[in-house]
């Protein structure tokens, strides 16, 4: 296959008689189902059919209808009820079909990295006579109903900025639209193209008067190629396909359904008996042109999806043209068996402008499933076809499509007036083997919809897709969902397998409405939260985190002889973390790197709160110190604290007021939180208090430290810190944060004052007051940037009216799940997360998932 001149079919959508979507269409094709509807007297009367006409002996109460042709999700496209009522139903349903085709392709047309075009056509509807009394209203009615505005309406509503061209070639409209889209893609007029058509009149119920020798069937059956063939049936239909250059589709991991190797369009000219008559010469020539364009010999074609109207004149002409083309267009190869021929009109009738697209989708599905399908109502071949002396036989059963080489199919569509189209389809190229998931790695599934009701339906359908007979890889599902258009109503799940994801989807009905990017506050935790291995998943998944962490690591290794990589190693001895110098440097690197990652996504804080060493991260993020200077200060602080005299710290589950009687005898209130405190002081007294409080039934826990932080025992350390601060330049903060000692805003004077930072080391961390101050600032999203969830829990205890999200979680071995869940929660709240940066390049591909309902 020559990739340079080929076009990939990467998405498709349809509503055809008896089929609400592509899956139902394929089911009907392989079972040989007839999708034509028959109507009783009451249905005909309700549809407005004249009783006299309905009673006529030649009236055939049959028509192909589509599901929901009279309905329209106007809110999805931003139309008012009055506007929607003025739009041709063909345009309305085609809009829905176009959006679903892009969903099927896993492409957000508004985020295409290039130009997106649309080529489409529909049946003619007569616009209303202009109302001279209200010319503006008359103009709107014409715009709503005139066929010229079909393609541009789609471009307007889906944000397609490439060519938007309405095609009108009667019955061949759909396939001609595909041909024009292929030409535009290969000519680089656009980078992705939608092609399709619509044929719909309301009310759909009805029928027709059969006339002898006409093109409509006398009994509502289309017996294409059969000796009893006597005409077709008029049907409604809507279909669309999404196309890309094959080279781009391969490079960008698209799901390729089939490949268009070549296509051609011509006209019969005057070489026929009448304007509406078909021409053997015209049809033969367009097939030869398509074969030449594709660079294949006719003997390589295994199936032809014929125009196949099932008329006594049309079928013999088409088979004669095919036979002539296949004889003249044969290459050096030898045909191993007959070429099968069929037509979708035997299943769904003649869908007018959609006929060629319906045939294309049918042939693509046959190539995708490597199977032939039956031709309904075919029993014995029409002798006028002369099949015995041709390369063709009618496809009569659902069976495997065996082939020694690549499977190829031809698709024909011929319009009244003589515009003929033919294209050559080939099976999708083999993709590099991906196998099953190598490990049970967690993935985020991001679902979104325009309404809560639509999200509920999508959630259930996706759960079913994840547990069907041939489920896609979970990483491909995650990738496809994030590539599609994103809506306001959102839901995420994090899982490491399809069945687990399906269980979560079925178990939850939680939804979040994302608005404009929310106002954000950053929270930075303090010492004691870091455990071996924390940050490892962030280092692997987050590129900016990794970059900043490595810069901090290099600086610490050079300046202090400390390798921060040990913090990421689950095997690091816990004693390494007991060293205040190590813990504080690692906490700073974690927090600063996470902040940098979020800021690279456009998430900037309007306020911050840091616990103890976390306040140093906040100050650095605010621009008070450079990263290099901040690391020097953190090292100086940690060294001074590490060298301080002995002491202990005790966490108690009591309110700060209840802890007041315990203070004194050197015992200080180190942390004042909501319903909990930390006491700090001489080791003997703290250990004594631990025993006393335990006997009283108070939840008490001695912290893993041999020093009394945030107490007078840190006086010498504070002096050393003052000296270090005096050597480092400080600037006014760009972002406000909460001061630990007061629980109020730090302000510029404090931020740049060495005395403040000494006080911060000695005094109480007023966490409860600080969180209350932060809550009053109006931030709707609180993000904890560091290990654990201590500050998130503080926000929950205070019932802060905001969403609090920890990023790393409490357990290093579950950090990947926690991190992805945290980032997913940010996306639910409206943060624009660049999901591809969180995955290995080339590790995921688009797959077929249920479209937006």
Explain this structure to me?
The protein has 853 residues and is of the alpha/beta class. Helix 31 (790-797) links the parallel strand 28 and strand 29. The longest helix has 21 residues, at 580-600.
Compact summary:
The chain is of the alpha/beta class and 853 residues long.
Counting DSSP H or I runs of 4 or more residues, the number of helices is 32
* Contiguous runs where pLDDT drops below 50 for at least 5 residues: none
Structural class: alpha/beta
Helix content: 25-40%
What's the CATH topology name of the largest domain?
Peroxisomal Thiolase, Chain A, domain 1
The CATH architecture of the largest domain can be named as: 3-Layer(aba) Sandwich
- What is the top-level CATH class of the largest domain? Alpha Beta
Radius of gyration over C-alpha positions, nearest whole angstrom: 35 Å
By CATH, the superfamily of the largest domain comes out as Thiolase/Chalcone synthase
**Main sheet makeup:** 11 strands, mixed
Number of strands: 29
Q: In angstroms, what separates the terminal alpha carbons?
A: 37 Å
Mean pLDDT: 94
Morphology call: elongated
């Amino acid at each position: 296959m020559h990739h340079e001149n080929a076009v990939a079919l990467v998405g498709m959508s349809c509503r055809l008689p008896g089929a609400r979507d592509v899956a139902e269409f394929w089911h009907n094709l392989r079972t040989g189902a007839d999708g034509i509807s028959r109507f009783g007297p009451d249905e005909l009367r309700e549809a407005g059919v004249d009783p006299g006409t309905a009673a006529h002996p030649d009236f055939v109460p049959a028509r192909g209808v589509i599901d929901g042709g009279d309905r329209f999700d106007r809110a999805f496209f931003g139309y008012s009820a009055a506007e929607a009522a003025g739009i041709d139903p063909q345009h309305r349903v085609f809009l829905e079909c176009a959006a679903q085709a892009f969903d099927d392709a896993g492409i957000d047309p508004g985020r295409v990295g290039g130009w997106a075009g649309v080529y489409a056509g529909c049946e003619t509807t007569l616009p209303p006579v202009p109302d001279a009394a209200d010319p503006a209203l008359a103009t709107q009615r014409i715009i709503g109903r005139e066929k010229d505005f079909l393609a541009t309406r789609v471009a307007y509503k889906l944000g397609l900025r490439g060519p938007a061209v309405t095609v009108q070639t009667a019955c061949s409209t759909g396939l001609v639209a595909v041909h024009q889209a292929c030409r535009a893609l290969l000519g680089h007029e656009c980078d992705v193209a939608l092609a399709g058509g619509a044929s719909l009149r309301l009310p759909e119920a009805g029928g027709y008067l059969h006339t002898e020798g006409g093109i409509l069937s006398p009994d509502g059956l289309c017996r294409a190629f059969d000796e009893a063939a006597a005409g077709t049936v008029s049907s409604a239909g809507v279909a669309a396909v999404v196309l890309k250059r094959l080279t781009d589709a391969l490079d960008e991991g698209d799901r390729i359904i089939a490949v268009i190797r070549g296509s051609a369009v011509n006209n019969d000219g005057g070489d026929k008996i009448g304007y509406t008559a078909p021409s053997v010469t015209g049809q033969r020539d367009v097939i030869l042109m398509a074969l030449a364009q594709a660079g294949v010999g006719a003997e390589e074609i295994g199936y032809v999806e014929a125009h196949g109207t099932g008329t006594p004149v049309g079928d013999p002409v088409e088979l004669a043209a095919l036979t002539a083309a296949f004889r003249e267009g044969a290459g050096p190869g030898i045909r191993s068996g007959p070429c099968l021929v069929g037509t979708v009109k035997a299943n769904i009738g003649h869908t007018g402008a959609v006929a060629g697209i319906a045939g294309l989708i049918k042939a693509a599905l046959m190539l995708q499933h490597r199977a032939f399908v039956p031709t309904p109502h075919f029993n014995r071949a029409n002798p006028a076809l002369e099949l015995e002396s041709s390369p063709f036989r009618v496809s009569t059963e659902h069976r495997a499509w065996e082939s020694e080489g690549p499977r190829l199919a031809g698709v024909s569509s011929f319009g009244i007036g003589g515009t003929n189209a033919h294209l050559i389809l080939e099976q999708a190229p083999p993709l590099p083997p991906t196998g099953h998931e190598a490990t049970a790695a967690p993935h985020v599934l991001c679902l979104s919809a325009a309404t809560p009701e639509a999200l509920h339906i999508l959630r259930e359908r996706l759960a079913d897709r994840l547990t069907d007979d041939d489920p896609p890889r979970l990483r491909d599902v995650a990738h496809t969902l994030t590539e599609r258009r994103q809506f306001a109503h959102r839901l995420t799940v994090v899982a490491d397998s399809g069945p687990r994801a399906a269980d979560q989807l079925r178990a939850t009905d939680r939804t979040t409405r994302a608005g404009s990017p929310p106002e954000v506050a950053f929270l930075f935790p303090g010492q004691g939260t870091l455990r071996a291995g924390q940050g490892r998943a962030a280092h692997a998944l987050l590129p900016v985190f990794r970059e900043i962490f490595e810069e901090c690591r290099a600086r610490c290794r050079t300046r202090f002889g400390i390798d921060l990589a040990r913090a990421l190693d689950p095997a690091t001895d816990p004693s390494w973390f007991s060293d205040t110098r190590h813990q504080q440097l690692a906490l700073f690197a974690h927090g600063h790197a996470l902040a940098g990652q979020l800021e690279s996504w456009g998430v900037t804080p309007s306020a911050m709160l840091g616990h103890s060493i976390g306040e140093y991260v906040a100050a650095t993020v605010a621009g008070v110190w450079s990263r290099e200077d901040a690391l020097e200060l953190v090292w100086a602080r940690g060294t001074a604290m590490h060298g301080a005299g002995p002491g202990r710290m005790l966490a108690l589950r009591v309110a700060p007021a209840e802890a007041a009687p315990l203070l004194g005898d050197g015992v200080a209130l180190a942390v004042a939180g909501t319903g909990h405190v930390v006491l700090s002081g001489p080791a003997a007294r703290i250990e004594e208090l631990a025993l006393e409080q335990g006997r009283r039934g108070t939840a008490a826990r001695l912290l893993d430290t041999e020093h009394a932080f945030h107490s007078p025992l840190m006086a010498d350390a504070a002096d050393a810190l003052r000296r270090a601060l005096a050597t480092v330049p400080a600037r006014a903060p760009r972002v406000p944060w909460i001061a630990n000692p007061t629980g109020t805003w730090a302000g510029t004077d404090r931020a740049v004052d060495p005395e403040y930072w000494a006080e911060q080391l000695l005094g109480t961390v007023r966490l409860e007051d600080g969180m209350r101050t932060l809550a009053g600032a109006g931030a709707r999203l609180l993000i904890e940037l560091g290990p654990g969830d201590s500050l998130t829990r503080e926000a929950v205890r205070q019932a802060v009216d905001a969403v609090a999200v920890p990023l790393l979680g409490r357990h290093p071995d579950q950090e990947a799940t926690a991190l992805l869940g945290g980032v997913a929660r940010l996306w639910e709240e409206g943060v624009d997360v660049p999901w591809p940066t969180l995955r290995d390049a080339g590790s995921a591909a688009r797959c077929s998932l249920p479209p937006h309902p």
